């Protein structure tokens, strides 16, 4: 069995997403080059080496170790090029943890999150599938919260979808029925596979416009009442209009309030806090959290 920390894939096909990191210190992004690299994912017919390396039928043993059986496991899956600290998802996970002190374990999925999505995304999908399945088997009561930004949203969405609906991780196995039932909430930001017509979307997006690599509508129907997919109109990753390739949109989530909205959406789905049950005035959405259903 291989630990989450040390596993790394062989890299072959340069592929993914915007080289975007933190607002205020984001790398310069060439929107046209980003679009071309994402298109390469579907245009290149050769499977990545990771497809065989992490094939669940060829290598059925999980590649992760069980974690502690906390009531809630929050898994963050970062965007392309994000550092280990200061990620978009860090404040979201922190707000959830603060809402349920000593009940939340936070795991930042240790996948490459680099430009070679076919390789790294396949590893990420296998790690996520195995983590959910291993934890569901080891921990009878634990439930899961999945947070993904950019490439991370793609990895989570593909891991939860049927293999034939994926663009990464088609060979890495499926999330077990027991684990599916334990998924409490899923929050995406700037998802390349965004579909404008889905009922769980939020933000200033145009519902007639999809992401750069949209998934088939209905691919996440099994999770529809548990998903919040945030997309802003200027984000060319989730809004692929050729007329508005504005890289600033893809980092807008750092300061537009949607981190707090996403945390509120999750916290409202947690079990009532002990103080809530005794009539205390604690807000289940957490401190300073706005309404969990922002207007478009």
UniProtKB/TrEMBL annotation:
Ranges for region Disordered = 270-296
Q: Where is the composition biased (Basic and acidic residues)?
A: 281-296
Q: Which Pfam families match?
A: Cutinase (PF01083)
Keywords, ordered alphabetically: Disulfide bond, Hydrolase, Serine esterase, Signal
Q: Does the keyword Signal apply?
A: yes
Entry superkingdom: Bacteria
Q: Which residues form the signal peptide?
A: 1-23
Q: Which InterPro entries match?
A: AB_hydrolase_fold, Cutinase/axe
In which family does this protein belong, per the annotation? Belongs to the cutinase family.
Protein name, per record: Cutinase family protein
Phylogenetic lineage: Bacteria, Bacillati, Actinomycetota, Actinomycetes, Micrococcales
């Amino acid at each position: 069995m291989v630990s989450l920390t040390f596993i790394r894939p062989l890299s072959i096909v340069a592929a993914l997403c915007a080289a975007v990191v933190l607002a205020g210190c984001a790398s310069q992004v060439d929107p046209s080059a980003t679009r071309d690299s994402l298109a390469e994912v579907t245009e290149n017919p050769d499977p990545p080496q990771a497809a065989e390396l992490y094939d669940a039928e060829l290598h059925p043993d999980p590649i992760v170790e069980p974690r502690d059986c906390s009531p809630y496991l929050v898994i963050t899956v970062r965007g392309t090029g994000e550092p280990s600290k200061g990620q978009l998802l860090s404040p979201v996970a922190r707000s959830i943890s603060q809402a349920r002190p000593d009940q939340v374990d936070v795991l930042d999925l240790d996948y490459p999150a680099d430009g070679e999505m076919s390789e790294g995304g396949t590893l990420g999908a296998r790690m996520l599938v195995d983590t959910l399945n291993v934890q569901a088997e080891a921990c009878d009561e634990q439930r899961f919260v999945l947070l993904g930004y950019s490439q991370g949203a793609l990895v989570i969405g593909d891991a939860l979808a049927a293999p034939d609906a994926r663009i990464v991780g088609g060979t890495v196995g499926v999330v077990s029925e027991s684990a599916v039932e334990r998924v409490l909430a899923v929050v995406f930001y700037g998802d390349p596979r965004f579909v404008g017509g889905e009922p769980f979307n939020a933000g200033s997006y145009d519902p007639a416009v999809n992401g750069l690599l949209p998934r088939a509508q209905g691919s996440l129907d099994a999770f529809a009442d548990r998903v919040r997919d945030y997309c802003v109109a200027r984000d060319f990753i989730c809004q692929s209009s050729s007329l508005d390739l504005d890289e600033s949109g893809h980092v807008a989530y750092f300061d537009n309030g949607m981190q707090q909205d996403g945390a509120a959406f999750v916290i409202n789905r947690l079990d009532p806090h002990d103080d809530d049950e005794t009539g205390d005035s604690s807000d289940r959405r957490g401190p300073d959290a706005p309404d969990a259903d922002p207007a478009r």
